[in-house]
Amino acid sequence: MKQERIPIGDKVKIYQRGKKKNWVADFWHNGKHCRKSLKTSNKKIATVKAVKLASELSSGEYQVVKTNILIEDAIEKYFSSKENDPVRESSITKYRNDLKNLLGYCDERGVKYLTEIVPSFFDEYRRVKGKIWGPNTLHNSSKTCKSFLDWCKSRHLVSQNSLENLKLRKPVACQRAVPSIEELRNILISTCGLDRLMLTTLSMTGLRGGELKYLRHYDVDLTDNWIHVVPRVGEQQKEHIERKVPIHPELRKYLLRHHITGDGWFFQSTPSHQNPNGGCLMSQGRLNTVFKSVAGRFGHPVGTDQRGLTLHALRRFFETESVKSGIPQQVIDLWMGHTGGKSMSKIYFTLKDEESQRFIKKLNFSPLLNFERGATNE
User: Fold this and answer.
1) pLDDT (tens digit, 9 = 90+) per residue, 257-313?
2) Rounded CA gap, 232 and 219, in Å?
3) Do residues 194 and 325 both lie within one domain?
4) Are 309 and 233 within 8 A, CB to CB?
5) Do 357 and 332 belong to one domain?
6) What's the rounded Cα separation, in Å, for the pair 47 and 45?
7) 3-class SS of residue 14
8) pLDDT (tens digit per residue) in 127-153
9) Model's pTM, two decimal places?
10) Which residues are CB-contacts of 119 (< 8 A; sequence separation ≥ 6)?
11) Does any domain span residue 172?
C-alpha cells in the first residue's frame, strides 16, 4: 500500500518508510528526483526538518552532500578558506601541524575519506598520541580536528560531524614555573645589551613576546610614560584589542638610554652576518633561546613543561609581582590584555590614567635592577 505523502510547502513531501517508520522527504533538485531520510519517526520533528529543507530549496541554499571526499583534499580546501580570515599566521601554522598529524595517522591506518573518521577511530588516534604528547597538546590538537570536521559539515563535504558529540575534557590547569625576583635578577645580569633591555622590559610590563617585537618607535611614550600596544594588519599578535601599559619609573631610566635608529621598530635587531646593517625586526625565537640558555646555566628547568622556564615566564613574573604588591586583579588584567573573563565587573571596569600610573609605582623593581655586579656584562 502506497504511503500517504504530506506536502510541506510546494517543493517537499514527506512520508514514512521502512520497519522503523522513519520519515523521508521527497523533492526535486536541479532537475533530479531526490529522497532524503529525516532520521526520525516523530512527525513533529520531521515536519520541522522538512520546512527547513523546503526553505533551503526555495532560497537556493540547498546543496547535495558530496561523498568519498579525500581527507587530504578537504584539508587543502579548509586552508584555502582561511586565506581571507583574520587568523594569525602562528595559529594557521598550529592548525596545519594538527591536521598534518591527523592525516599522517590516517595514512598509516589506510583511512582516506572523511566519512571514515568515526569516534572509535578518533579515540584510538587520541590514545596513541596521548603516549607522546602532553595533556594540553592533545586537548588543543583534538579541538582543531573537531573544528575541521565542523567546517567540512558546513561546506557540505560530509552530512554530519561524526565527532560532534565527542566531549573533550579540558586538562586541569597546573601552576607554571615563575622565577623569583632574585632568580630573574641573576638571569638578567648574565645577559647584556639589547637582550637584557628586552628581557627587562618584558619582566616589568607583562607584554607578550610578539607584542614587544612589533612595538614601533612612537608606541613607546617616555614623556607621559605609556607603552601603547596597537594591533596592526600583518603583525601577528594574540589579541586584537588596543591597550596601553604604564611604564615603571625604574624601567623608564633604562629605556631612555636606548638609542633608536630611523623611524621603524623600537627594538631592532643588531648587525649580524645576515643583516650587516641591522635595523630589522627582533627575533622572538632567538630571544627565547637566549633566555632559556641563561636560565639553564643557573640550573632552572627550561622548556614548555610546566616546571620549565620560557620567555612567557616573564609575563607570569609580572603578574605575580603585581598581585603580591596589592594591585587589583582588574587593573592587572587591563595591563596584560587578558580578555578571557566574562564577568560584568571586567566589562564595566574602567581605569583612569592617573590611577594606572599610581598603581605601577607600587611595584618594587629595585632588587631586580641592581646590576652593580653585572656591570662588566654591559
Assistant:
1) 988 766 688 998 766 667 666 667 888 999 999 999 999 999 999 987 778 899 999
2) 12
3) yes
4) no
5) yes
6) 5
7) strand
8) 999 999 888 899 999 999 999 999 998
9) 0.65
10) 162, 163, 166
11) no
